[in-house]
Design goal:
The chain has about 160 residues and is mainly alpha-helical. Helix content is about 60%, strand content about 10%. The chain contains six helices and three strands, in the order αβαβααβαα. A three-stranded parallel β-sheet has the order 1-2-3, with helices on both faces. Helix 2 links the parallel strand 1 and strand 2. It is globular, with a radius of gyration of 16 Å.
């Protein structure tokens, strides 16, 4: 419920509150933090992935809806990033502590990429070559294949 409140209800409320003055000014930028989890199901993190899919969908919808208004909306979709969330996952799950360093993004790089995408008016930014490839693969692959693959990986990690 906390994830839904944060990633769905609060995000929607804040967006509506900030959007009106931006539209009145005829300019503004909104950066929403989604995740590569928004592109596919994530067994054992189902609610997290679902709420991040909402963030991505809302961003894409608003971006198109606001075309020509002077307001842009960008979704930053990082993969695993060196944050306190990763630290907690490492403490709770031995598999998370064995992730290879190349799979974990640098928080400063992710933030810089988010800012660059925001300033450029990009709709979606996925930092990292591996993450970008995974997001493309998830969108181009039939959903049933993505579900089965994610399920198999999830069961291996548990």
């Amino acid at each position: 419920q906390e994830l839904i409140a944060l990633n769905v209800a609060t995000l929607t409320d804040m967006t509506s509150r900030f959007l009106a003055p931006m539209l009145e000014r005829g300019k503004g930028r909104i950066l929403n933090v989604a995740s590569i989890a928004a592109f596919q199901p994530v067994p054992s993190l189902a609610t997290y992935a679902a709420t991040k899919a909402y963030v991505l969908s809302l961003t894409e919808s608003l971006s198109e809806e606001l075309k020509g208004s002077g307001v842009t909306v960008t979704a930053l979709c990082p993969g695993i990033t060196e944050t306190s969330m990763v630290d907690r996952a490492r403490e709770a799950n031995a598999a998370a502590s064995q992730l290879p360093p190349f799979m974990i993004g640098d928080v400063n790089d992710v933030a810089a990429q988010g800012y660059a995408a925001l300033m450029a008016g990009e709709v979606i930014r996925v930092p990292g070559v591996l993450n970008f490839a995974a997001s493309l693969a998830a969108r181009a692959t039939p959903k049933w294949v993505v579900r089965r693959f994610a399920g198999a990986l999830g069961r291996m990690a548990l």
